[in-house]
Amino acid sequence: MLTPYSVNVTSFGDALNSLDIIIDAFKSKGLLVIKGHRFSQDEQIALTEAMGDVLDWNFHTGTADITDDASSPRSAIYPGGHSDQENRDYSTQGKDDYVLDWHIEQVFYVDPILAGVWNMTLFTADRGNGNTRFVDSTVLYSMLSTDDQEFLDQAVVKWEKPMGSGTGPFYTKVVDIHPVTSDKTLRVETDHGCYVMPHLVQWAGSEPTAEQVSRYDKLWEWLKSQLNTNEDIRHVQEWQEADLLVVDLFRMYHSVMGGFKFGERQFTGIGVRPRNATSELYLELGAL
Ligand SMILES: [Fe+2]
């Protein structure tokens, strides 16, 4: 088990002074947690904007201060924490049960979410409960044989999942190029919340053979099994109140574990996209 790279700061100003360290960690590791200062929402936004100036995000210091317009980057500031449903019985899921299954974030966008900045504003569950798990998809890709890598490089899948304006179907590449590192990145959804799981619909521009379909299915099972069982590649964030986690959501599969009650786990999240991002979806093969 791995833990997220930790950056300790003494104040908001200190965090801004540590921007180079934070950005280097984001680029090289894809995951870090900033500790030692309780960020207000304005400070969380300001840090995100400072990162966005360097990383070319739609959150940057020129971002207009509008939250009620869906096209504004600021509409991507959201409350989270998975402890906010008053009528849910939280006692059924313990710290080893998945509250939110393994997924890679919103692959259906042409301009995908690049990062999450998650501020755990309140956390009163016992430490080790409500963990978030992460696995780096570029590491998963590097574990495949060259043959399997070359096979998946040519694979396109079709799948359906609920999102704001519909369920797809979406057509997406299994392997995409990371926008920052240029590493090959597995980008196939594994979340059981999918109405239709991603299945091979095209290989090297043509309809796949039965053999290719079955090869893809086995590799997808391997991926799911790595996420569920391989602790050597798993990063575990054991939350403490005031942790500010920055995660590369292009490359990090993640999941949420139980063991908390109503209201015990509250965070403010920010999702960032490329500068000038559109809200276009991969709704047809031609969009790839
Ligand atoms: Fe997520």
The CATH H-level homologous superfamily: Clavaminate synthase-like
Gyration radius over CA: 19 Å
Q: Order of strands side by side in the largest beta sheet?
A: 1-2-13-5-15-3
Number of DSSP E strands: 15
What structural category characterises the helix and strand content? alpha+beta
CATH topology description: Double-stranded beta-helix
Query: So, CATH architecture?
Result: 4-Layer Sandwich
Characterise the protein shown here.
The protein is globular and about 55 Å long. It has six helices and 15 strands. It has helices at residues 12-17, 19-29, 41-55, 137-143, 146-153, 210-229, and strands at 5-8, 31-35, 77-80, 98-103, 115-123, 132-136, 155-160, 170-173, 175-177, 184-186, 196-203, 234-237, 244-248, 252-257, 265-272. By secondary structure, the chain is an alpha+beta fold. The mean pLDDT is 95. It has one domain: Clavaminate synthase-like (Double-stranded beta-helix, 4-Layer Sandwich). Strands 1-2-13-5-15-3 form a six-stranded mixed beta sheet, with helices on one face. Strands 4-14-6-12 form a four-stranded antiparallel beta sheet. It starts with a strand and ends in a 16-residue tail after the last strand. Bound molecules: fe (ii) ion.
Which labels suit this protein?
single chain; 288 residues; alpha+beta; Double-stranded beta-helix; six-stranded mixed beta sheet; four-stranded antiparallel beta sheet; 23% helix; 28% strand; globular; binds fe (ii) ion
